[in-house]
Amino acid sequence: MKIHAALFTAVLATCTTFAAPPQFDVTRIPGVPEQGFNTVFPADINNNGVIVGAMVRLSGFVPVRAFLWTGSGPTIDLGDLGLFEFSQAVGINDAGQVIGFAEVADARSVTGHVFHGWFWENGTIRDLPPLGGDFDSQALAITELGEVLVVSYNRNETGRDRYYIWKNGKVDPIGRLNAEPGGLSGYATSMNDSRQIVGSIVHADGQERAFLWQNGQMIDLGLAPGDDFFSFANRITNDGRIFGESWAFDDVNTHGSRSQGVVWQGAQFVRTIPPLPGDWAASALGANEAGVSVGYSGFPSSGVVSFGGEWFNLNDLVPGQQPLRFLYQGRDVNERGQVVVDGQFGCCGYLLDPR
Question: I need a labelling partner for 71 at 20 to 30 A (CA). Which of 84, 110, 203, 355 fits?
Answer without folding.
Answer: 84
